[in-house]
């Protein structure tokens, strides 16, 4: 491999927050951010990979920053500068800068760090490149998403939210805005956490209410009202939207429900490869089907045999042609390495509430003509599962 290295590292779903998220912030009594306890662990991990001679690239597959998890009655974050300037995040930021300076850092945005509208994309790109000189920032010009493609290997990687009904950039509901309904769900769940101190992952709440309401004629509005009620909020509660393009200074819960009521119809009108049913499954069951349908299945051609996603917060490493595990659940550790026609992997997450901090490691073994895909647990770099495809 280039310059003697043969490994790539893929991590995602770090969810760094601003200083408000890490301490009680009036009028709330509890912190609400997702990353605090694991900051030292991630800081050391990045330092380890910076020093590793056999690692040529660290790829962050989205949700490095969290601009969604803010209580609905607080001013939203309009960009990542307040997150980067949070003193608690300094060790992470410093090591990301060193990785970028050494040309080892690639960053693909996710949904929690997506730009709110098209005009924000170049602003975000300029900020990232100025803050982390040397970074490879992969983002489309007209959508807040990107796809990583290896130069010589049949490997593709992205965050994965593009294939999820509630979390993909929404270009049809609000003129001038990309914000999907998942953004507003995150704001309501963050309000509940800040009020109660009870840790909540909005993906878990979303899955719960999808299962409860997906057969209802008014599925979208019923689900959103249930999330609001779970947070102790009524339909007239105002969500602070100051400085967010495409919205006024605030919007009520009732107005959000009305605005997104045609979400399923709008999705099916604009998506041909993943329909709304598949996109709902992406939010609730996981992204194996999306990876198979878009990149790895028999109708996609031979160009890709490894697809790596984030977003779901559940690590995966499996042969999509076996479908032996129900997607959306954590795999059990397995040290059995075997050849696969294709591999779908998910990098998991580093947030405090999830017990496993995981990452994906790929290694090109040219001598044996194998491309390994491993999921490892940090600290200790314990191997959880290893598969390989032919180079």
Helicity, in percent? 25-40%
Which CATH C-level class of the largest domain is it?
A: Alpha Beta
Going by helix content, strand content and strand pairing, the class is alpha/beta
Instruction: Give the number of domains.
Output: 2
Sheet-strand content, in percent, reads 15-25%
Envelope shape? globular
What composes the largest sheet? Answer: 7 strands, mixed
Number of helices: 11
Q: Which architecture of the largest domain per CATH?
A: 4-Layer Sandwich
Rg over CA atoms: 20 Å
Instruction: Identify the CATH homologous superfamily of the largest domain.
Output: Metallo-dependent phosphatases
- Provide the spatial order of strands within the biggest beta sheet: 4-3-2-1-12-13-14
Describe this protein's structure.
By secondary structure, the protein is α/β, with parallel strands linked by helices. The protein folds into 2 domains: 2-169 and 284-390, Metallo-dependent phosphatases (Purple Acid Phosphatase, chain A, domain 2); 181-266. The chain has 11 helices and 14 strands. The chain has helices at 39-51, 81-84, 90-101, 120-131, 181-196, 202-213, 219-230, 253-259, 263-270, 276-284, 288-296, and strands at residues 7-11, 55-61, 105-108, 136-137, 148-149, 155-157, 238-240, 250-252, 306-309, 316-318, 343-346, 357-365, 370-378, 382-390. The strands form 3 sheets. The chain has a 7-stranded mixed beta sheet. Strand 1, helix 1 and strand 2 form a beta-alpha-beta unit. The radius of gyration is 20 Å and the shape is globular. Residues 324-331 have low confidence and may be disordered.
